[in-house]
Amino acid sequence: MPASYRIDPVRHTIFSRGWGVLVDEDLITRRRHVATDPSFDPAYDHVWNFLDFASVQLSTELLERLAAVPLSHSPACRALVAANGEALKLAQLFTSYSVQAARPVPGFPDFGRGPRVPRFLQAAVDWPPHPRLEVRQLRAFLSVALIQLCP
To answer: How many Cα neighbours within 13 Å face the side chain of 50?
Structure first.
């Protein structure tokens, strides 16, 4: 799977994207690259752009393992931008595994808490993940994603 990421120290956000077919080994490799980047900070928020994946073929075992040992530290926000239900189902599964692993990723936090969530949402909106996705669609999607994945 071809992939790229950008660590934005001004916005305290990691932007990741990929295309093609996403399989377990690709995700493990990409995660290792991000974690060993000298600019990486586990307190940074993370936005994953899954819009260009033809298919997402991740095992539930890998999702469970990644949920038990996350790269990000709380209260980092995590959001997944996707065009199909396959990736959204994986995000929900990851959320449930995170809760089971005692790494709280609340299902429905108070969305109005403090300045972090709006700042993160704006950073994601300012980053154009895909020309097909209009800003208002991204804002609506990220509102849902943040409700699921932002502590």
So the answer is: 26
